[in-house]
Write a structure and sequence with these properties.
Elements: E1 3-12, E2 15-24, E3 35-41, E4 48-51, H1 53-61, E5 65-66, H2 68-77, H3 79-91, H4 96-199
Parallel strand pairs: 1-5
Antiparallel strand pairs: 1-2, 2-3, 3-4
Helix pairs in contact: 1-3, 3-4
């Protein structure tokens, strides 16, 4: 029976989540499997991978063939490296201790690169947040400046309206006063003439 190490899809629509399984190559994608050896979550950055390396090496030594994606995951987690070192031990090129030391060194270097990637991603996220905050502050300052600039302009408009209204009223009063004075002047000579006639 040909065995494949491959992914079996789980999760919701649009939110994929995969099990890493050893299964018969003739079984359907989501069908029966022989053993679950880990999971893979590609929706996070960096992707979340949990793999039982010893089980994966055991299946590889028994002749299981990984698919392309599963091979990349096994290489990333060190299962292929451990299988390679186990082959060296079987041939007598390495001892168990040397193989274990090499594998641990490889794991440390891999962990350093993963930590560096996580730090770079967190720095990038903080930078994006800082830029967004600075842009929002700039917009708020611009709005405040526009509001301050608009307020004196409204006061100036109100003052000009007040000054334009006042002369109109004064002009209207002046015309009325002039008319009243003219009327009074015309009435005064007539009244004086009547008084003169009465005295005479």
């Amino acid at each position: 029976m040909p065995v494949k190490i491959r992914l079996q899809r789980r999760g919701k629509k649009g939110k994929p989540y995969f099990w890493i399984i050893a299964a018969d190559s003739r079984s359907p994608r989501d069908g029966k499997y022989l053993e679950k050896i880990g999971f893979y979550n590609p929706t996070t950055n960096p992707a979340q991978i949990d793999l039982n390396v010893d089980k994966a090496v055991e299946w590889l030594q028994n002749g299981a063939q990984p698919t392309d994606t599963a091979r990349a995951i096994l290489s990333y987690k060190g299962a292929l490296m451990k299988n390679h070192l186990a082959g060296g031990v079987r041939k007598g090129a390495l001892t168990e201790e040397q193989a274990e030391t090499k594998f641990n060194e490889w794991l440390d270097s891999k962990k350093g690169s993963i930590d560096h990637k996580k730090a770079t991603l967190s720095d990038a996220q903080q930078k994006v947040k800082a830029e967004a905050l600075a842009a929002e502050k700039a917009v708020n300052e611009k709005r405040t400046a526009d509001a301050i600039a608009a307020a004196p302009a409204e006061e100036v408009v109100e003052e000009t309206e007040a000054t334009t209204e006042t002369p109109v009223e004064e002009t209207a009063k002046t015309i009325d006063d002039v008319a009243a004075e003219a009327k009074a002047e015309t009435e005064t000579p007539a009244a004086e003439a009547k008084e003169d006639e009465k005295e005479a």
